[in-house]
Specification:
By secondary structure, the chain is of the alpha/beta class. It is built from 2 helices and 8 strands, in the order E-H-E-E-E-E-H-E-E-E. The chain has helices at residues 15-26, 74-84; strands at 7-12, 29-34, 37-41, 49-54, 67-69, 87-88, 99-102, 108-111. Strands 1-4-3-2 form a 4-stranded mixed β-sheet, covered by helices on one side. Strands 5-8-7-6 form a 4-stranded mixed β-sheet, covered by helices on one side. The termini are far apart.
Length: 117
């Protein structure tokens, strides 16, 4: 059996708004812009992607699955993401080398320390 990782599904209230936010944050392209199922990918023919789908309930607790990103410059990337509308999130992480942020709908993600070469 062969499996290919197609996408990560993100439940949200507004797939178009959140999908566009993530597309801008990641520099990805939109491959499906339907109001109820909005998909972005690194490139049109490159997987995996993120698929944003509508759910009726609001987010209430910390995500059990989240994305980690390793930037070249952690400080600059955090400032850029905050300017786009992310916010700091406290999920009990304490003093660590990464920074936990949340997207406009409250989904947590981490910006790791700078990549060391």
């Amino acid at each position: 059996m062969t499996l290919e990782w197609e996408q990560v599904i993100v439940d949200c209230a507004d797939p178009v708004a959140l999908g566009r936010w993530w597309a801008e944050a990641l520099g990805w392209v939109v491959v499906n812009d339907a109001a109820d199922e909005f998909e972005i990918r690194p490139a049109p023919d490159r997987l995996p992607g993120l698929l944003f789908g509508t759910v009726p309930e609001a987010k209430t607790v910390k995500n059990r699955l989240h994305l980690d990103f390793r930037p070249e410059d952690q400080r600059a990337e955090i400032e850029r993401l905050l300017a786009l509308g992310a916010r700091h999130a406290d999920v009990g992480q304490g003093e660590v080398s990464w920074v936990t942020l949340a997207d406009p709908e409250g989904n947590e993600f981490c910006v790791l320390s700078d990549r060391r070469t």
